[in-house]
Design brief:
Blueprint (H helix, E strand, L loop, with lengths): L2 E5 L3 H12 L3 E5 L11 E4 L2 E4 L8 H11 L9 E3 L4 E4 L5 E4 L3 H31 L6 H7 L3 H7 L5 H8 L3 H9 L17 H9 L2 E3 L5 H12 L3 E3 L4 E7 L2 E7 L4 E3 L2 E4 L3 H8 L7 H9 L5 E10 L8 E4 L4 H10 L9 E4 L12 E10 L12 H15 L8 E7 L1 H8 L30 E3 L10 H15 L4
Parallel strand pairs: 1-2, 1-13, 2-9, 6-15, 13-19
Antiparallel strand pairs: 3-4, 5-8, 6-7, 10-11, 11-12, 14-17, 14-18, 15-16, 16-17
Helix pairs in contact: 1-9, 1-15, 2-15, 3-8, 10-11
């Protein structure tokens, strides 16, 4: 039995804790915030409730595997509802496109071009799922293993961007824009992100988009409960200031109150950049990992409005995406000349769930636009957050969703708010972006260069998003192994 300390009670850390505790280890989870969940937060006020992070679940089998491996099955714990339509898209030229929640419906609605693209995406998924997403990352050697099969390399097309792959299959500008959006799932630029990200729409459309009744915040709460059931200890309001290194390996953690907690294994669910920059001593043997992170492009961040509204919006889908006229200008503002977006894509999540509203004549909207991270843009600049919030509401109004006269109240959350709440450097949602042909293969590995230290969560392999974060926990549990 190993003594394991998990730093951070985001979904990845909690999933790792549940698996390791079920494997017989003595596990302590330390979370700086007052509640578990990390980026899967929840805000409640005047009867309005908001998920403040991810708003849908994909790859539900990943969560089914987690719960089956640690106790009662998923269906006994959470109520997952398949969304149909999955997303309602609105384009600047007035075109509306509701994407069904089933693969057959998607193929029928989006047509033969999109169907041909999905067939290619399915092949990329077949090639990459087990050797990449479900296995430990070994840097360029992972890519080298893939290169042993010429056919597989041709399928994945590591030399091609997501935008480039779309051009091969799609002539409809609406479908091309729809595909570009999937790069933002990893905080990336579709002109630079690898074609392998085609697996994201495949997973979402073939296996479904799902909502957790009562709010997605129920997911980390359920995983925390499972970890505790298996014997783990979860301590909130317990910041970690340092990973201890003794004898050339991780030996525990130092707490903000000066206390120390020894451990045989440390699993870090903090942002990888924060770990290597702030939590490890300068003498730790992680120079190459630090240098690799310094060279990587950070992912984009997000600017969020929580809107408590009077009345109901007729025909509003669970998820609505309102595109700008010039999508490339958005990515230029994010990565090339960072600034608050002038004409952003606006994402609205408005679950039809009684748990999110005080009565049936109310709505609670989570509104998100992409944003450059804090640093290149000073989100602490006086008046900037409110001015940008007003701008986003005006953009919504121009695109047919004017709710300004229905507002009970609004809450604004900027990238610097995310940085302070979760430790994500600059508010980058996914750590490093996938910009560049090899970027996805060069993310921080789950096994750090320091023996006994492992990384879990969206800033490490295999990437951001609820299923990948949960898979990172599966990989880490496999690396640590069961108690002996």
């Amino acid at each position: 039995m190993a003594r394991v300390v998990v730093v951070g009670a985001g979904l990845g850390g909690l999933a790792a804790a549940a698996r390791l505790a079920a494997g017989g280890h003595r596990v302590s989870v330390l979370e700086q915030a007052a509640e578990v969940g990390g980026k899967l937060g929840w805000v409640s006020r005047d009867g309005h409730g908001f998920d403040t992070g991810p708003s849908l679940v994909t790859l539900p089998q990943v969560f089914g595997d987690l719960f089956a491996a640690t106790g009662d099955p998923l269906d006994d714990v959470l109520d997952l509802v398949r969304l149909d339509p999955a997303v309602a898209y609105r384009f600047a030229d007035g075109t509306d496109l509701d994407v069904p929640g089933t693969l057959d419906g998607v193929r029928a609605t989006l047509g033969p071009e999109w169907s041909a693209f999905l067939d290619r995406a399915a092949e990329i998924w077949r090639v990459t799922e087990q050797p990449f997403l479900r296995s430990p990352l070994q840097g360029a050697r992972t890519l080298a293993r893939l290169a042993r099969s010429v056919a597989d390399v041709r399928t994945v097309a590591p030399w091609s961007s997501l935008r480039g792959l779309g051009v091969q299959y799609l002539t409809d500008p609406h479908l091309r824009m729809l595909l570009d959006r999937y790069a933002t799932y990893s905080g990336s630029d579709p002109r630079l992100a690898p074609a392998a990200l085609a697996t994201v729409p495949w997973v979402e459309q073939a296996l479904g988009s799902w909502y957790v009744r009562g709010g997605l915040r129920r997911l980390p709460l359920a995983v925390a409960d499972r970890a505790v059931e298996r014997g783990a200890e979860v301590r909130t309001s317990t910041p970690v200031t340092r990973v201890l290194v003794e004898g050339g390996r991780a030996a525990g953690v130092e707490l903000a109150d000066g206390g120390r907690l020894p451990a045989d294994v440390v699993v870090c669910n903090a942002d990888a950049a924060a770990l290597y920059r702030d939590l490890l001593p300068a003498v730790a043997p992680v120079r190459r990992a630090r240098a690799s992170l310094a060279r990587a492009t950070p992912s984009s961040a997000g600017f969020v409005l929580l809107l408590a509204l009077r009345g109901r919006t007729a025909g509003l889908a669970h998820h609505t995406v309102l595109f700008p006229e010039d999508y490339d200008a958005e990515f230029d503002d994010l990565f090339r000349s960072p600034r608050p977006l002038r004409d952003p894509t606006v994402y609205v999540s408005a679950p039809d769930d009684p748990a999110t509203r005080p009565d049936d004549d109310s709505e609670s909207w989570f509104v998100l636009v992409n944003a450059p991270r804090h640093g290149p843009v000073d989100w602490d600049s006086p008046g900037l957050a409110d001015a940008h919030a007003d701008h986003v509401l005006a953009v919504l109004a121009r695109r047919g969703l004017d709710v300004r006269d229905r507002l009970r109240w609004r809450e604004v959350r900027t990238p610097v708010d995310l940085e302070r709440a979760t430790g994500s450097v600059g508010g980058s949602i996914y750590g490093t972006s996938s910009n560049g042909a090899r970027a996805a293969f060069l993310r921080p590995a789950n096994a750090s260069p320091l023996p006994g230290l492992f990384l879990v969560g969206g800033s490490s392999h295999p990437g951001g998003g609820l299923p990948l974060v949960t898979l990172s926990a599966e990989v880490v549990a496999g690396l640590v192994g069961p108690a002996r």
